[in-house]
Specification:
By secondary structure, the protein is mainly beta. The chain has no helices and 26 strands. A hairpin with a 4-residue loop joins strand 21 and strand 22. The radius of gyration is 18 Å and the shape is globular.
Length: 203
Amino acid sequence: MTRSTSVRIVDSADVAADASIGDGTSIWHLAQVRENVRMGENCIVGRGAYIGNGVVMGDNCKVQNYALVYEPARLGDGVFIGPAVVLTNDTYPRAINADGSLKSAHDWTPVGVTIERGASVGARATCVAPVRIGAWATVAAGAVVVKDVQPYALVAGVPARRIGWVGESGIPLVAGEDEDVWVCPNTGDRYVENDGILSKESV
């Protein structure tokens, strides 16, 4: 596949010939990008990261060093994957079948993690498929996510639970003057909570 001259792939990276890599993307040392990957523009794939077969990534994503993004994960625009994060793809993992035979690709069906626009997953967190991380949510470092995460939620722990809300700048929100109103101390943007779901106030 012909790639734009604005794509940077270092010599030690292993990028499949049929992977689609967007303009302005950089793939660093020892990273592996498998077959049929579709990666958007201006992405960064760090040292030793793994992007599995057929993974789809939007524009402006960052996958940090040694993160493992297993297929069939889907990453929206502007997703941040911290160092050594794992996005799993096997709900009931086994090396062998019940009869003792070695499992092959035909013996299980991969299931993916979906991460929506602007969300961040902190260093060494694990997202156990199938889960969906909502837009602009933040998963704290070291968390283990086993349930879907609402947009704008800040989750932490093992298993991960919501401990607060974050705005689009990534800063934890503070309580506003009205009940169920949250405010970003960085931007002043206001958010409204309704039945455990947060939404940004329209201007």
